[in-house]
Amino acid sequence: MATIRIHTTQNVTLEYEVGSIGDRIVATLIDSLVLVAWAVLWGVIFQSVGSGGSHETTDWSSASGIIAIIIIAFILAPVVFYSLASEIFFNGQSLGKKARHLRVVRLDGTAPRLGDYFLRWLLRIIDLYLPFAGGLVAIITIAVNGKGQRLGDMAAGTTVVSTKAPAGLLPDLGPSLPLEGYQAVFPQAADLTDHDVALLRQLLSRSLQQGNYVLLNETATKIKQLLHVQSDMSDEAFLRTVLRDHAHVIAAG
């Protein structure tokens, strides 16, 4: 599987496996099934209401225009905004992406912003829903781009990566030192004890293997509180940087 190196604004390099076209297609199909299930649910509800009540109370054609618009908007809103809302509230993952262990990340290592998710969502119209194309634009763009980016990703500065650890291989969380001339981003990392570092490696490894981003966020939050630092880096990038800084500062001292 292709890999991509992400150089963060703190001069740290992270390496990810790019989400494969096959996994992204399956994730899209899963998300489509979720939306189809939503539509079927409402179809069943309307059919049940229409067949269970009197003609006067179930004649939808006599409903006022405003009520009809509200009902239609309520039904269509999740269909239209599903992708945008799920990626915003679930750390770059829809249900389909979570099932296939995929996640949206920025190429500079920081967490995607609301505007990034909005651009990806807006350009889905061209990438996936262009008439007579049927997603070919996205497939071709991802195949030739080399960074796993469709048009929406290129505009937003994002890509989709795999969160699965390669079979039989744990994430590289060892205390390897940065390149010569490296300066610690968080020198406070030296305050971590050996026990803290061992626990941090264990939690980071577990959260990445399991795709548990709640645990990843909680770990990053705890480390920030412990070191009294702030960062706009993604949780994974922050924790990897802390480990690298700890190894660097301890070796230099």
UniProtKB/TrEMBL annotation:
<keyword id="KW-0812">Transmembrane</keyword>
<protein>
    <submittedName>
        <fullName>RDD family protein</fullName>
    </submittedName>
</protein>
<feature type="transmembrane region" description="Helical">
    <location>
        <begin position="66"/>
        <end position="85"/>
    </location>
</feature>
<dbReference type="Pfam" id="PF06271">
    <property type="entry name" value="RDD"/>
</dbReference>
<dbReference type="InterPro" id="IPR010432">
    <property type="entry name" value="RDD"/>
</dbReference>
<feature type="domain" description="RDD">
    <location>
        <begin position="19"/>
        <end position="157"/>
    </location>
</feature>
<keyword id="KW-0472">Membrane</keyword>
<keyword id="KW-1133">Transmembrane helix</keyword>
<feature type="transmembrane region" description="Helical">
    <location>
        <begin position="25"/>
        <end position="45"/>
    </location>
</feature>
<feature type="transmembrane region" description="Helical">
    <location>
        <begin position="121"/>
        <end position="144"/>
    </location>
</feature>
